[in-house]
Amino acid sequence: MTACRERGIKVYMLALGGKQTTPQANISISITQTMERMNFRIDTYGIGVKRYQDYQQNNVKTNNVKCIKENLMLHDSTIVKYSVDLENMLLKIMVEQDCEKKVLLFDNVLANWFWYILRGNAIYDISLMSIDSFFKYNKKILMDGKDDGWPFIYDTFEGFEKWIRTNEYNIYNIEGAYGVDGWIIAKGMNILGVDK
């Protein structure tokens, strides 16, 4: 914990104009300044504080996604590990942010698709994607898996889409700041404390 705090303090000091500079610190300063000009708070999460407030107050949908929770606070969390329990239809993603670990638990998981997985993955956002957008942008992936019965056996693409709606599944879109991108079809998501 102490080492992690020291690393955080060092990066923070560099971002405030300390004598040592690194490309990472310069990028951090640039992103922070850009976000301030765009009227974002520094602790941006979900679809961004300003965009979330617009969504909440005016029911404005932005890019067919909506924020999951106001206090989700997953922006720039690093994915430590993930696991899939096929028998119990669960998917766990352990993330770390500011030396604190959390577990994202997705339940009643029908399918997931991740790409660009590498060590040090950082989450930019996890949002709910509209079913229309999901099927529009992932048709090829889903059709490629159809002959193998993935994510399950269905007759028509339209029937699959109707089944997702009828059974009240959510599409959780994972957008990576570094590395991982993908989605999870599940009925729910909970944030838990550290997984033992």
Task: Give a verbal description of the structure.
There is one protein chain. By secondary structure, the protein is an alpha+beta fold. It has two domains: 1-38, no CATH class; 44-192, no CATH class. The protein has five helices and nine strands. Strands 1-6-7-8-5 form a five-stranded antiparallel beta sheet. A four-stranded antiparallel beta sheet has the order 2-3-4-9, with no helix packed on it. A hairpin with a 2-residue loop joins strand 7 and strand 8. Helix 1 crosses helix 2. Mean pLDDT is 73; it is low at 1-71.
Helix-strand layout with pairing:
Layout: H1 2-15, H2 23-37, H3 49-58, E1 65-67, E2 78-85, E3 90-97, E4 100-107, E5 111-115, E6 122-129, H4 131-146, H5 157-166, E7 170-178, E8 181-186, E9 188-192
Helix pairs in contact: 1-2
What brief labels describe this structure?
disordered N terminus, 196 residues, 9 strands, 2 domains, globular, 33% helix, four-stranded antiparallel beta sheet, 5 helices, alpha+beta, five-stranded antiparallel beta sheet
What is the helix tally? 5
The stretches of 5 or more residues where confidence is low (pLDDT under 50) are 1-71
**Cα end-to-end separation:** 17 Å
**Helical coverage, percent range:** 25-40%
- Please, how many domains? 2
Helix/sheet category: alpha+beta
- Biggest sheet strand order reads 1-6-7-8-5
Using DSSP, what is the number of strands?
9
From the alpha carbons, calculate the radius of gyration and give it in angstroms: 19 Å
Order of helices and strands: HHHEEEEEEHHEEE
**For the report, how would you describe the main beta sheet?**
5 strands, antiparallel
What is the approximate shape? globular
